[in-house]
TrEMBL record, chain A:
Keyword set, alphabetical order: Amino-acid biosynthesis, Cytoplasm, Glutamine amidotransferase, Histidine biosynthesis, Hydrolase, Lyase
Classification via PANTHER family: IMIDAZOLE GLYCEROL PHOSPHATE SYNTHASE SUBUNIT HISH
Species, as recorded: Ruficoccus amylovorans
Lineage: Bacteria, Pseudomonadati, Verrucomicrobiota, Opitutia, Puniceicoccales
Protein known as: Imidazole glycerol phosphate synthase subunit HisH
Enzyme Commission no: 4.3.2.10, 3.5.1.2
Chief location bin: cytoplasm
Swiss-Prot/TrEMBL catalytic activity: L-glutamine + H2O = L-glutamate + NH4(+); 5-[(5-phospho-1-deoxy-D-ribulos-1-ylimino)methylamino]-1-(5-phospho-beta-D-ribosyl)imidazole-4-carboxamide + L-glutamine = D-erythro-1-(imidazol-4-yl)glycerol 3-phosphate + 5-amino-1-(5-phospho-beta-D-ribosyl)imidazole-4-carboxamide + L-glutamate + H(+)
Metabolic or biological pathway: Amino-acid biosynthesis; L-histidine biosynthesis; L-histidine from 5-phospho-alpha-D-ribose 1-diphosphate: step 5/9
Record: active site: 85, 190, 192
One term under GO cellular component: cytoplasm
Origin: domain of life: Bacteria
Gene Ontology MF: a single term: glutaminase activity
TrEMBL record, chain B:
Region annotation Disordered: where it falls in the sequence: 146-177
Species assigned in the record: Ruficoccus amylovorans
GO biological process, one term: L-histidine biosynthetic process
GO cellular component, one term: cytoplasm
Enzyme Commission (EC) number: 4.3.2.10
UniProt name for this protein: Imidazole glycerol phosphate synthase subunit HisF
Catalysed reaction, written as an equation: 5-[(5-phospho-1-deoxy-D-ribulos-1-ylimino)methylamino]-1-(5-phospho-beta-D-ribosyl)imidazole-4-carboxamide + L-glutamine = D-erythro-1-(imidazol-4-yl)glycerol 3-phosphate + 5-amino-1-(5-phospho-beta-D-ribosyl)imidazole-4-carboxamide + L-glutamate + H(+)
Localization, UniProt: Cytoplasm
InterPro entries, per database record: Aldolase_TIM, His_biosynth, HisF, IGPS_HisA/HisF, RibuloseP-bd_barrel
Chain intervals with Polar residues compositional bias: 153-162
Gene name tied to this protein: hisF
Gene Ontology molecular function: any one: imidazoleglycerol-phosphate synthase activity
Residues at the catalytic site: 19, 138
UniProt subunit comment: Heterodimer of HisH and HisF.
Lineage: Bacteria, Pseudomonadati, Verrucomicrobiota, Opitutia, Puniceicoccales
Length: 209, 294
């Protein structure tokens, strides 16, 4: 046991409320530092990026505040990172949403769901995640066969880099719902909206810091 | 690796709705073990523990003073509950919406204000994202005789909210519904299907559809209404109004093609638990998220 909660910087693109994200990370054992710019992030144990809104606007904010370059360097140095929803999508090269260039950290593109009329868009609600590979510590305490997580999105990541794919979810067809690369994790679902099992995933991440 | 229970479908959602007046839940709620049964946050936590998939707070008075109280309720809920929360009732402007989202609501529900000012839907969804904007539609059946010079046969039909069309013979009268506002007191010019398409075009990410004919009857949701709207739009439809038994939930999710069900009294009064409801849905072959105890 450590005597001090690790400091986790939550990127605030100033596009909406981050209360529940911050509160969830606090419940998971982190000490939260909300930051609109990257100043002072070096002291943090981890960076959390809960992307919000539409990707063109979000990317513009990241570029303007300097976060874009800081995120690239942070992940290149394999420092602990957790992206949520748009915080997953922005890590890739391009998004169809507004024909937007992403951070380009990982190879792949973000596409809109292409599904028959029986599938509603956004993909909204609880769905299962099939986690892959040797179970990383982040899924400790999660029942891989039956636990579900909360999703709300119309776009999803497509990547040829199979080694990145940590989890897949089926909505009409399987799509990438989580990635892992060293100490960088990102999920399409919202652990902070996924009740006890979502908090468990955050707590596992904090424990690994 | 073994297949999960999921087969390419998102789970259907069960969404309890709490009516809040001046910071307190109105209508008795019959949960045991609540320290304060009138406290919305206590009830939200109880529903979370039961495995509710989302929660709706309906601010049933929404004067400006009370809206400030509602923000406090939402803030406290967002600090203690980790599931999506929607707030509706009396939100009229982008600033009203922003205040609720900043307090911690994941979505807001617009009803009368959306009809009076459809541009609010477009503006809000552009600023906050489609996924934040739910449009609530209060729908009431209009007898065919009201919309056209119909035969006596037609005017006899169409007024029964529960008619499933199965008993009709000969020509099928086309069912129509009108949009009502102001808590159902005011009829508008909008046909429900046209309005549903319009709100989605403007940017609504979800529709909360209440059948005024069925609401409070406990005789079942309006299946035809729900199916007609769900088939007309791409976004998810939450069915509301009329739940009395768990079979009603199955019917509207399966036959009405709803993505979610909103229910108040059947859960508040302890008639059924969320778990019982989900077991029923699972038994009917619908994809559900079963809580831990299941």
């Amino acid at each position: 046991m450590r005597d001090k909660a690790p400091i986790v910087t939550v990127i605030d693109p100033e596009m909406g409320n981050l209360r529940s994200v911050c509160r969830a990370w606090e419940c998971a054992g982190a000490q939260i530092r909300l930051a609109a710019t990257p100043d002072g992030v070096e002291e943090s144990a981890a960076v959390v990026f809960p992307g919000q809104g539409a990707i063109p606007h979000c990317m513009a904010r990241l570029e303007k505040t300097g976060w874009a370059q800081t995120i690239r360097e942070w992940i290149a140095q394999d420092r602990p990172f957790f992206g949520i929803c748009l915080g997953l999508q922005t890590l890739f090269e391009h998004s169809e949403e507004g024909d937007t260039a992403g951070l380009g950290i990982f190879p792949g593109r973000v596409k809109r769901f292409r599904l028959g009329p029986e599938y509603k868009i956004p993909h909204m609600g609880w769905n299962a995640v099939r986690f892959r590979g040797s179970p990383p510590p982040l899924t400790d305490g999660i029942d891989l066969e039956r636990d579900q997580f909360y999703f709300v999105h119309s776009y999803h990541v497509e990547t040829a880099e199979q080694g990145l794919v940590w989890g897949e979810t089926a909505y009409g067809y399987p799509f990438v719902s989580a990635i892992a690369h060293g100490n960088c994790y990102a999920t399409q679902f919202h652990p902070e909206k996924s009740q006890a099992k979502g908090l468990q995933m955050y707590a596992n991440f904090v424990k690994s810091l | 690796m073994k297949e999960t229970a999921n087969s390419g479908q998102v789970s259907v959602r069960i969404i309890p709705c709490l009516d809040v007046h001046a910071g307190r839940v109105v209508k008795g709620v019959n949960f045991v073990n609540l320290i304060d049964a009138g406290d919305p946050v206590e009830q939200a936590k109880a529903y979370e523990a039961q495995g509710a998939d989302e929660l709706v707070f309906l601010d049933i008075t929404a004067s400006s003073d009370e809206r400030a109280i509602m923000r406090d309720v939402v803030e406290r809920t967002a600090s203690e509950c980790f599931m999506p929360v929607t707030v509706g009732g009396g939100l009229r402007t982008v600033d009203d919406i922003r205040a609720m989202l900043n307090a911690g609501a994941d979505k807001v529900s617009l009803n009368t204000a959306a009809v009076q000012n459809p541009d609010l839907i477009r503006e809000a969804s552009e600023i906050f994202g489609n996924q934040c904007i739910v449009v609530a539609i209060d729908a009431k059946r209009v007898a065919p005789a009201d919309t056209e010079e119909a035969s006596p046969l037609r005017s006899q039909k169409g007024s029964s909210p529960q008619g499933d069309g199965g008993e009709s013979s000969g020509e099928e009268p086309k069912l129509t519904w009108k949009v009502f506002t102001h808590g159902g007191r005011k009829e508008t010019e909008w046909d429900v299907i046209d309005w549903a398409r319009e709100v989605v075009r403007l940017g609504a990410g979800e529709i909360l559809l209440t059948s005024m004919d069925s609401d409070g009857t406990k005789a079942g949701y309006d299946i035809e209404l729900t199916r007609a709207v769900s088939e007309a739009v791409e976004v998810p439809v939450i069915a509301s109004g009329g739940a009395g038994t768990l079979d009603h939930l199955v019917d509207v999710l399966r036959d009405g093609k709803a993505s979610a069900v909103l229910a108040a009294s059947i859960f508040h009064f302890g008639t059924y638990s969320i778990l019982e409801a989900k077991q029923k849905l699972a038994g009917a072959g619908l994809p559900v998220r079963l809580p831990l105890e299941a």
